[in-house]
Every structure is written in structure tokens, then in C-alpha cells.
Write a structure and sequence with these properties.
TIM Barrel, alpha/beta, eight-stranded mixed beta sheet
Length: 275
């Protein structure tokens, strides 16, 4: 087992990925790999980097379960061979050129206050509609990592006040905030991120692709780089240990949305035919 642990491995990860019904898995993996390679060529070393996507599935979505079944049957989806690991929360996907991406299970929950909370590294189901603090406690009790992701209009007004209260609380620990590539580049970085970092909470970037056919190209283009011991047969467990280590440094990468694409996507989500 120890021979499978890579000391001080560079890990490039996207912390917020959806596999929407309008996406083809092989196309999403191809795009993710291309995006990860672009980053690794400039930020790390492609030969010695691990690529990883965190799924954040919404109520009623069970894509990870489907992919896990494919993996357990060692099925191939076009140029990608899926295989199980030694844990139930992760899958390895390897293409015909022996290039690998790890897929880690996770959920996205909507609270009573209409705040989104991610449960990273989890194949448990969580109930929507509970208070945010209860939701966070449920996620922690399931040995998962709770993340409060930025979203358009989600952190203003009453919900912004709730987030501020959480940041001021001394009873909550083990919480991260999440940035995403859908934030337009003309919006300044939310002040909550700096407050969280001062508190010792990590900010985990991810793409959060929208349910639009063109968005399958997003995963891997916006995320973070960490360094730590990574076990290829237990990638979820490895990432949990790395992210919960207070000394772990998060190096964000990627570009925010252009004004044109932001406006176009918001219009398409509200009025277009998607998913």
C-alpha cells in the first residue's frame, strides 16, 4: 500500500462539477483533461500531476452511482475506461493514452434559507430544506467536507447576513467557502472570502457548470492546486486528509467569466431550452 502513496504529489482539482443530463461523460472527461493539461504545463508538471474532479450532485441526480456501476463492470465509454478504487466514494477514469482523472462523489444541498451547501467526498444523500447550520452539522457528521459556494445573488441581503453570522460563529468548524468560474470578471472578489481565510477556512474554487450543452467544456478550467500525500487506491480519503490539514496551501487557478458569456448564460438559463 505504501508504494502507492506519492509523497508531495501535485494535485489539480475542480471542486464543483455537475454532470448534467445534456452532457456526455466522455466529452466532459476529454474537456477536463485538456483543461487540466493547460494548467499543469504552466503551473506544475504534467507527468507528475494528479487530476481530480469533485462531483456535487443535486437532489434527484445519481450520475455517480451510474458511473460507479459502469466502473464495477469495467465498462468503457468511448475512449475512457472506468474502474473502481478501494473506496466507494471514488472512481478512476483512464483514456486510451493511459491518462487518468479521478472522480470523487459529492452532493449539493439547498437549505431552508435557499443557500447552497456542498458535501464534498460523500456518497451519502442529504435532505434539502433544513436550516443551514443543521445541514452543515449533518455533512460533518457523515465525515464529509461542507462547502458554501458563491452563486449569483446568493450572498446578498438576508442570505448574506446569514453567511456573515456563520463566519462570526465560534461553534462551527471544518467549513470551506467556494468560488466558481461563473462569477463575472467585473465583480470584485467577495469580501467573505478574505474573512473566511482569516478565520482559517479554505476557499475551494470550481467551475460549477450550468445545465447548458456548451458548458461541458468548463470542468477543469477553474480550480485549485494542492500538494500532499495522495493514495491512488483511496483518492477520496487522501483528499479529505489534505484539505482538512490546516497547513495545506490552496493555490487557485483559472479565469472568471467574460461579461458577454455571463449575460448570455444567465439569459439562456432563464429563457432558453436547456438540459
Amino acid at each position: 500500500m505504501n508504494s502507492q502513496v506519492k509523497i508531495n504529489q501535485k494535485i489539480i482539482a475542480d471542486a464543483h462539477v455537475h454532470i448534467h443530463k445534456c452532457f456526455e461523460l466522455d466529452q466532459l472527461l476529454n474537456a477536463s483533461l485538456a483543461n487540466f493539461h493547460k494548467i499543469s504545463r504552466t503551473k506544475t508538471d504534467t507527468e507528475n500531476s494528479v487530476f481530480l474532479i469533485f462531483l456535487t450532485e443535486m437532489l434527484g441526480d445519481f450520475e455517480f452511482s451510474k458511473i460507479l456501476e459502469y466502473a464495477q463492470n469495467h465498462q468503457q465509454i468511448n475512449n475512457w475506461k472506468l474502474a473502481p478504487t478501494q473506496e466507494s466514494i471514488s472512481i478512476s477514469a483512464t483514456n486510451n493514452e493511459n491518462q487518468k482523472i479521478f472522480i470523487i462523489a459529492g452532493r449539493q444541498i439547498v437549505t431552508a434559507e435557499k443557500l447552497e451547501v456542498l458535501a464534498l467526498i460523500s456518497d451519502n444523500e442529504f435532505v434539502d430544506g433544513l436550516p443551514v447550520e443543521t445541514t452543515i452539522q449533518n455533512i460533518v457528521s457523515k465525515d464529509s467536507i461542507p462547502v458554501l459556494p458563491w452563486g449569483v445573488g446568493k450572498w446578498i441581503g438576508k442570505r448574506g447576513n446569514i453567511l456573515q453570522k456563520l463566519l462570526n460563529s465560534d461553534t462551527l468548524s471544518m467549513i470551506c467557502l467556494g468560488d466558481n468560474s461563473g462569477r463575472p470578471n467585473f465583480w470584485s472578489r467577495p469580501s467573505y472570502f478574505q474573512l473566511a481565510e482569516k478565520k482559517g477556512w479554505k476557499v475551494l474554487p470550481g467551475t460549477d457548470p450550468l445545465p447548458l450543452k456548451s458548458e461541458y467544456t468548463k470542468p477543469g478550467s477553474f480550480g485549485f492546486i494542492v500538494e500532499g500525500e495522495f493514495n491512488i487506491v483511496e483518492p477520496g480519503k487522501s483528499m479529505k486528509q489534505i484539505l482538512l490539514n490546516p497547513t495545506t496551501s490552496i493555490q487557485p487557478y483559472g479565469c472568471l467569466e467574460t461579461p458577454f458569456r455571463f449575460i448570455r448564460n444567465q439569459f439562456a438559463i432563464r429563457y432558453g431550452d436547456h438540459n
